[in-house]
Automatic annotation (TrEMBL):
The modification 4-aspartylphosphate is found at residue 54. The keyword Phosphoprotein applies. InterPro entries: Bact_response_regulator (IPR050595), CheY-like_superfamily (IPR011006), Sig_transdc_resp-reg_receiver (IPR001789). The lineage of its organism: Bacteria, Pseudomonadati, Bacteroidota, Sphingobacteriia, Sphingobacteriales. The keyword Ubl conjugation does not apply. This is Response regulator. Keywords: Phosphoprotein. It holds the Pfam family Response_reg.
Length: 123
């Protein structure tokens, strides 16, 4: 079976690096983007199975990106995990169309469980 492709979009390089390191424990290929302006084009280019996206990023916010993905025939079935330190993040993520939400800071174990669930759903 081909490796699942996970795309991480967060404007905090520390977060993308940490998530990429954690995901090395899973059998997945990871791609990262810290500039949300480029995220949509890179999604079209890489066609990942799972997107991990931060809600609050400058210029293009995570919820704007999710809405744009859900409106695209090619990407609409992408499994999306939204991460955020925002108090109303869960509601914003749900309204945008995310599959899962995880509040920052999060537990690595909890994150890995969510990824395994996403890998199963993205099959």
């Amino acid at each position: 079976m081909a490796k699942k492709r996970v795309f991480i979009c967060d404007d905090d390089k520390g977060i993308t690096d940490m998530l990429e390191m954690v995901l090395e424990l899973e059998d997945v290929d990871t791609f990262t983007e810290t500039d949300s302006v480029h995220a949509y084009d890179r999604l079209l280019q890489f066609k990942p199975d799972i997107l991990i996206v931060d809600l609050w990023m400058p210029i293009v916010t995570g919820d704007q990106l999710i809405k744009r993905i859900r409106a695209n025939q090619e990407l609409k079935n992408l499994y999306i995990i939204c991460i955020s330190a925002s108090r109303d993040g869960l509601q914003v993520a749900d309204e945008a169309g995310a599959d899962q939400f995880m509040a920052k800071p999060f537990d690595v174990e909890e994150f890995l469980n969510m990824i395994e669930q996403a890998i199963g759903s993205a099959a």
